[in-house]
Design goal:
binds uridine-diphosphate-N-acetylglucosamine; four-stranded mixed β-sheet; alpha/beta; UDP-n-acetylglucosamine1-carboxyvinyl-transferase, Chain; 2 domains
Length: 430
């Protein structure tokens, strides 16, 4: 299994380009199922989750041609309605094929995603919504089987804000008979990116980016070309990397308006920044102050930035209260950061970080994607050498992490099976 070895060696300096958003790319790829024509997607990040989604699409008969950051998806040869366990178990977001397969084929059989390290993560809200649209759903032998000759538009109120739930139902509703209205829909920019792509394919969606999305079903969708939006969580991670090393870094090809809550927290913590149209320049700070954060759905502070901000707060003077409201078990990084000298007490959904401690290199274990990113940040600020094991979590969601970090002056190297191809981690098709 691969590992990263990182030597804390002072400030990062330079410019880094943000890749396309993993969490936008996955639903965009799933949307290709909705049409027989070609969907051409650009700016796809070279990460394992994208490779897994492409493998899943190929398994059900979709044509998938990938070149660099692009993919041409072709739905004319779609022949299977089964998303099997061996692929779904490696990536929960595989559930995103359920709505499109059902809408296009009238039947879908998708392995139930299991729990994951950060929480139980049920998909009950996806299923309830499809039932409201007339689908018959049975769950047996670890699979969800949904059937509907044609889905019917319906008013749907999500009990909780769910990002992939909103995306799944929005995709299904594009081919339904009649109008679907989603209440308490997710506002996340990735939902807007998906709606924009679906509209380019001939869908009739309004209200994306608000909590009420209206989808008027159409008979068929056609091909389109779409550029994946930049990854706001990758961008936020680089901002924290610059801040934790007292570096001077320009984070380029990002959309600062997608990171307002994170930028506000960083500014209040004492990080000097200049915000441009599609970039943010972080300048060296003269000491950080503790800030409290509470994770909440967009546009509030994202749960996917909580672990990175926790790492940063270990270097701020004072005490920060970090409250996680989205996932019930998302402080696994706290124990690993503590092995590096951080003082963090976790009590239920709140972590109390006593900042200003010196971090020292240690052997640590990555537990999930964003927790792994927080360990990279801590390692950059630590005295000595840190070995981060199980970095396959990072490969799932950060494109070219070590090459980008090396270009900023970070001392990071990969050890293990993939070391032969350092500039482009080889994507393993699950
Ligand atoms: C997406 C993101 C993930 C991010 C999360 C929250 C993708 C591929 N992943 O995950 O990176 O951390 O949003 O911003 O976009 N819930 C239910 N029942 C459901 C669905 C969700 O109870 O049917 C709960 C979840 O357990 C969680 C909350 O709702 O407590 C929000 O989850 P959700 O927004 O669905 O997260 P994902 O879409 O899985």
């Amino acid at each position: 299994m691969d590992r990263f070895i990182i030597e804390g060696n002072g400030p990062l300096n330079g410019t880094v380009n943000v890749s396309g958003a993993k969490n936008a790319a996955l639903p965009l790829l799933a949307a290709s199922i909705l049409t027989e024509d070609h969907l051409e997607l650009g700016n796809l990040p070279r990460v394992q989750d994208v490779a897994t989604m492409c493998a899943l699409l190929e398994r059900i008969g979709m044509g998938v041609q990938r070149t660099e950051d692009n993919a041409v998806l072709s739905g004319s040869s779609l022949h299977s309605h089964i998303a099997p366990y061996d692929l779904v178990k490696t990536m929960r977001a595989s559930i995103l094929v359920l709505g499109p397969m059902l809408a296009r084929m009238g039947i879908a059989r998708v392995s139930l995603p299991g729990g994951c390290a950060i929480g139980a993560r049920p998909v009950d809200l996806h299923l309830k919504a499809l039932e409201r649209m007339g689908a018959e759903i049975i769950q047996e032998t670890g699979y969800i089987e949904a059937r509907a000759a044609r889905l019917k538009g319906a008013p749907i109120t999500f009990d909780k804000v769910t990002v992939t739930g909103t995306e799944n139902i929005m995709m299904a509703a594009t081919l339904a008979q009649g109008v679907t209205v989603l209440h308490n829909a997710a506002l996340e920019p990735e939902v807007v990116d998906l709606a924009d792509c679906l509209n380019a394919m001939g869908a009739r969606i309004k209200g994306q980016g608000t909590s009420t999305i209206v989808i008027e079903g159409v008979e068929r969708l056609h091909g389109a070309t779409h550029e994946t939006m930049p990854d706001r969580i990758e961008a936020g991670t680089w901002l924290c990397a610059a801040a934790i090393t007292q570096g001077h870094v320009t984070v380029n090809r990002m959309q600062p308006e997608h990171l307002t809550a994170v930028l506000q927290t960083l500014a209040a913590a004492g990080v000097p920044m200049s915000v441009g149209c599609n970039c943010v320049e972080v300048r060296p700070h003269h000491g950080l102050h503790a800030r409290d954060i509470v994770t909440q759905p967009y546009p509030n502070f994202p749960t996917d930035m909580q672990a990175q901000m926790t790492a940063l707060m270990t270097q701020a003077s004072g005490v920060s209260q970090i409250t996680e409201t989205i996932f019930e078990n998302r402080f696994m990084h706290a124990a690993e950061l503590a092995r590096m000298g951080a003082q963090i007490q976790v009590n239920g959904r709140t972590a109390r970080v006593t900042g200003g401690t010196e971090l020292t290199g240690a052997k640590v274990m990555a537990t999930d994607l964003r927790a792994s990113a927080s360990l990279v940040l801590a390692a950059l600020a630590a005295e000595g050498s840190t070995t981060i094991n199980r970095i396959y979590h990072l490969d799932r969601g950060y494109a070219d992490l070590e090459t980008k970090l090396q270009a900023l002056g970070g001392n990071i190297r990969r050890a293990g099976a993939r070391t032969k191809n350092l500039d482009r981690p080889k994507l393993v098709v699950a």
